[in-house]
Amino acid sequence: MFNARICARSFLGAALLIGSFAAAPAVAAWEPTRPVEFIIPAGTGGGADIMARTIQGIVTKHNLMKQPMVVINKAGGAGGEGFLDVKNSRNNPHKIVITLSNLFTTPLATGIPFSYKDLTPVAMLALDEFILWVNASSPHKTVKDFLAAAKAANGTFKMGGTGSKQEDQIITEAIQKSSGAKFIYIPQSGGGAVAVQLVGGHIDSTVNNPNEAVSHWRGGSVRPLCVFDSKPLPYDEKIAGDLGWNSVPTCKSQGLDTEYLMLRGIFMSPGATKDQVEYYIELFKKVRATPEWADLMKSGAFNQTFMVGDEYAKWVAVEEKRHQDLMKDAGFLASQ
Amino acid sequence: MEEIGNLFTGFATVLRPFNIMVMVLGIVLGVVIGVLPGLGGANGVAILLPLTFSMSPTSAIIMLSCIYWGALFGGAITSILFNIPGEPWSVATTFDGHPMAQQGKAGEALTAAFTSSFVGALFAVVVITLIAPLVAKFALQFGPAEKFAVYFLAFCSFVGMSKEPPSKTVAAMMIGFALASVGLDSMTGQLRLTFGIETLLTGFDFLIAVIGLFGIGEILLTMEEGLSFKGKSAKINARVVWETWKELPRYWVTSLRSCIIGCWMGVTPAGATPASFMSYGIAKRLSKRGRNFGNGEIEGVVAPETAAHAAGTSALLPMLALGVPGSPTAAVLLGGLLIWGLQPGPMLFVEQKDFVWGLIASMYLGNIVGLIIVLTTVPLLAAILRIPFSIIAPIILVLCAIGAYTVHNSTFDVVMMLVFGVVGYLLKKCNYPLAPLVLAIVLGDKAEEAFRQSLLASQGSLGIFWSNGLVGTIMALGLIALFWTAIQTGWTRLAAKPAV
Amino acid sequence: MSDHASGGDAGPSHRVVELGVAAVMAALGVVVIIGAMRAGIGWGAEGPKAGFLPFYFGLFILGASLINFIQAWFDPGRKLFADWSQLRQVMSVVIPTTVYVAIIPWLGIYVSSFLLIAVFMRWLGQYGWRMVALLSVAVPVLAFVVFERWFMVPLPKGFLEELLGY
């Protein structure tokens, strides 16, 4: 019995060895054999960074992986640095990357040569929500008021957002397109800074993520007008008075036909085998089942859609096309 | 007062044995992180963040903020001993700290640096304790124009006072600005000055430039002079701490001024780096021994260190009260708060009293513990300089290479480090000032960003920089600082006239 | 380094080096100006374009470097930049470091560091082999433990680490 088990194990090991030499798919499931590098194409302290480091913490705490997970920030060139690194690591299964919208926007806006097609899709972990915020002392109580005022202001309304030609500016562009109002878009270095500029009255509105502005909402200094999702958020905890995330109406229901959700997904380096992708999918399924993950989802009021395989790849392709169209209309494409 | 009561509850929390252990561990780790180039505060805190998941939020933040203090303390060590600032805010510490070490006064320089850091941080914590809500409101008034004005003030109070020929100062500073602008332009999201070269995407990081210009450059200069630090024979005295302490109270004016500059810059939130430069610049102008700054004046160590720590500490306030990080390290701490389910912002002070006052109490105690730990290492650290140069030099080179590599995980950066090293040697020999160059690399893109944000908001009108009392006052102060020497000469002449 | 002109040991003159530095800086200024013009130096409704400020940085670099060049040109001083013997000393660091930097991508940082420290100590410090071996092995190993193990910061690796399974 005991011997048989050892035999089975060494047979497995041999199979693995053969599998890695031969082109034919290995029989045994793949597992990382060295530390896995988790690339963040953004700086320390941002949304993607927090999510990646939480995942790293969960993996370590619950012992979900035999090899350590090493988190590396590669933020240069609006994340282009990180994506290029993954793209250039063909056949290295020990490298995964978490994406934000810059997967689509960076190559379009800067001309840095990479595309989502260069990477191997693994899984969509969640989607980040966006909400239209105004200062609490602003007279605009509804989206309709706000848009009417913005139109009347004749292009002097200031919209703050994170980064240039990235998600926040794309949403602003989409709002302009569907409503006809014009904004001056003022890029800031981070979501927290954007929220404070709104509280300080230096800008008129923002499209902050829920957790970037929630504390100011609770403190009574900003007001959410609508959420850029197809249905209201499911989180019913009371935040400001008797209002919670679920009391924020969708923008569409308020006459602003704009939807935007930002991908928080995982990709691998090109050339990954099915086994390798499968391993990471299982890993992230385990991560998603932990209470720590649930806490993170709740604190950020995330949309918890999970996708893998073809469904995920298709979603990414549609999103890519949409970003391209929006950015083309706005004149954001790199000239070179 | 309610605050005082809260604070004592906080002390009770922090003084639990487990938390004290966490605190000591955090400080030691922080010092290690601060000393190793490339594991700067932000990186270090980010790397250790997952470690804290199994702790309670209060213990975790105590640990992380102690790492932060430790890194602040540690940054001064390499600046003084090897002329290698591991963090932007320790650059100004090298100006007088390293010459002191070369003269065999490393112990004095280290003691002065650590003690000043402590004083600055303590001052800032007291400010936080007493007027936190007020300060948070003040910070809200800072839009892009006001931020630009603060950067402008920092620049003006630092430049326009160097001994080097003005044309060389201008050339060095403009090269710094140009290097800072390589890579992605944050305002338009397009690449510039990269000429299609992939490795230039990331731009020139401050750390690589500074490791090369200061660290490697210094090794080359030492080689030229014949293989030895001048102060090699320095006596290592265990009482050096005590003796330096007797001397320090003399500089109380500089110290107080630097505390105020630091707190102001930390809250505004320009951060610790401009604070240290500005404080050094102003101290140099106002001190009686100002002419001797740069040749190993202890006051030239006190000023930047005090301001940097006052700023670094008070920068935590906008982070807690508004959710805006005042520095990259604070940004990571902020991420930590979110992970533990704490929402930084105005309500944190109301809803999470235990946590906030625990943190503030840990700032007091963490600093005291930190000071004690680092002071005991002073004689040991000073002894490092006795190690023969042909052993220490290759080790420094290796650490520099690791530091340069870790910035972007790129071997190209290691090459750039060496290039900067040779350039630094040549520039220094040709009498070009390196400090304005480094200041421009550190602050260039931030200042440019604020400048262009302002112009976006004003639709291209420069009037925004004079549009209200606050921004106008800061700009005026900046101009006064810039033309201080001229004003001073004019004033002396005017005063002398009746006598003629 | 002040008045070596009359001394026996010759070296490059300070003036030539000054001229060279100013010329290289001026060239850098031109590069910056060209790069800025590619990025657009105009001033649109959205404020200054990406190349607006860099363009002026470039102009200032060029202008200041020309002044420095002219000043160096008319500098009557005949002092030396450094003695040849001093420059040899400097090169004895620059050359090993250049090799070191060049081999990092191939050998990894640990093996390269071992070589650098060993060469440096043996060649410049003339230490005994035992001391050289001890330190040149200890430092990379310590660096490996601290960075790779404790802080989980991956550093460049070569064939040796590959063999050991990293």
What is the structure about, briefly put?
Chain A is of the alpha/beta class. Chain A has 11 helices and 13 strands. Chain A has 2 domains: 31-128 and 262-330, Bordetella uptake gene, domain 1 (D-Maltodextrin-Binding Protein, domain 2, 3-Layer(aba) Sandwich), CATH 3.40.190; 131-254, Periplasmic binding protein-like II (D-Maltodextrin-Binding Protein, domain 2), CATH 3.40.190.
Can you put this structure into words, describing what you see?
The complex is a heterotrimer of chains A (336), B (500) and C (166). Chain A contains 11 helices and 13 strands. With 336 residues, chain A is an alpha/beta fold. The N and C termini of chain A lie far apart (67 Å). Chain B has 23 helices and 2 strands. Chain B has one domain (2-487). Chain B has a two-stranded antiparallel ribbon with strand order 1-2. Chain B is globular. By secondary structure, chain B is mainly alpha-helical. Helix content of chain B is 72%, strand content 1%. Chain C has 166 residues and is an all-alpha fold. Chain C has helices spanning 14-39, 52-73, 84-124, 129-150, 159-163, and strands at 43-44, 47-48. Chain C has a two-stranded antiparallel ribbon. In chain C, β1 (43-44) and β2 form a beta hairpin. In chain C, α1 (14-39) packs antiparallel against α2 and α3 (84-124) packs across α4 (129-150). Chain C is flat and about 60 Å long. Classes of the chains: A alpha/beta (336), B mainly alpha (500), C mainly alpha (166). Chains in contact: A-B, A-C, B-C. At the B-C interface, α3, α8, β2, α9 and α19 of B face α1, β2, α2, α3 and α4 of C.
Record keyword descriptors for this entry.
heterotrimer; B: two-stranded antiparallel ribbon; 72% helix; C: 166 residues; 2 domains; two-stranded antiparallel ribbon
